[in-house]
Amino acid sequence: MSFILEVTDLDLGDTPVENIFINDYMPMANGTYVKVYLLGYKYAKDNDDKLCVNNESISRHLNIPLSDVLKSWDFWEQKGIIIKHKKEDTDEYDYRVEFLNLKQLYIKNNYMLKTQVNAARSSNPPAYTCTVEDLVESNKIPSINEMFSSIDYIVRRQLVPNEKRKVLEWLYNFNMNPEVVVKAFFYAVEKKGKRNINYIEGILRNWYDMGITNLEALEKHTKIQDERFYSYDRIMKSLGFSSRIPSEAEIKVIDKWFDEWKFTMEVILKACENTKKTANPSVNYIDGILFKWREKGISTVEEIAEKDKPQISVQPKSNGTASPRAGKIKTRFHTAEQRTARYTPEELEAIARKRRG
Q: Are 230 and 206 part of one and the same domain?
């Protein structure tokens, strides 16, 4: 696969964006933060005094709440790639945004003098670095073992020791629960198709900046940001699998319920209630129930009681003349023609008198 640019005769202008932003900073941010940064960066490049640009106009232009614009600038300021210069005698939201040169910032951060490095280390405690001994000790902790087993299943291979050490560093430096790390791998692989360890670190760093360090906070976030990812969790929990990640095949089946069969979450959860009737609840079991409901034209919870009534077997009505033995299996003796059927009543009476005489 390759990418090329079309050459056009009409130049409507362009905005060059530094690759450092695309490669290093964009993966760690959500789409709204990236849009706000790029639009503001374009305004900075244009440097047009005739334009009246502020946070309210950016909000209208991108059709997003003003609060999201303000959160975006706070996020990029925390990442150290912009500086907010507040104006005097104005409200706290009226400020000038300075976009730092990322190339110069990269050089500055990677080629600091030794004295500057030592000074920085003395003022800020160093981040935790996992040692080989720590990795060995972590294998004795059941929750850590379970975390690595889940991650191996998600990425379809075993993590190498260096990757495991990096994951353990995330747990400490980001103060993350192991379950949240597993969710980050699942989100990256199944939704984004990414298995790069640095990409997953960007997801966790972004969650950490938003205060997401446990499953409860993540569930609230995903409910708002990603309804489908939240749906997988709800369905698996309703089946009794509170901590198991759905497999790739199960995800395809669940997606079919929403996208192809157009069922709502309420109907799917109603189907999941039928797991009480089986000892082995599964996604395929629910798939069978929903397939039957689809065939009956059921699309709402109210229609389930109306259209999915249990069938009652109807016995044939009796005309009142059948003997109590009616309905039993007949043998050849029942179906064979009786000898007396060949004589009239008078002939039978004559034969009886003759035998008595």
A: no
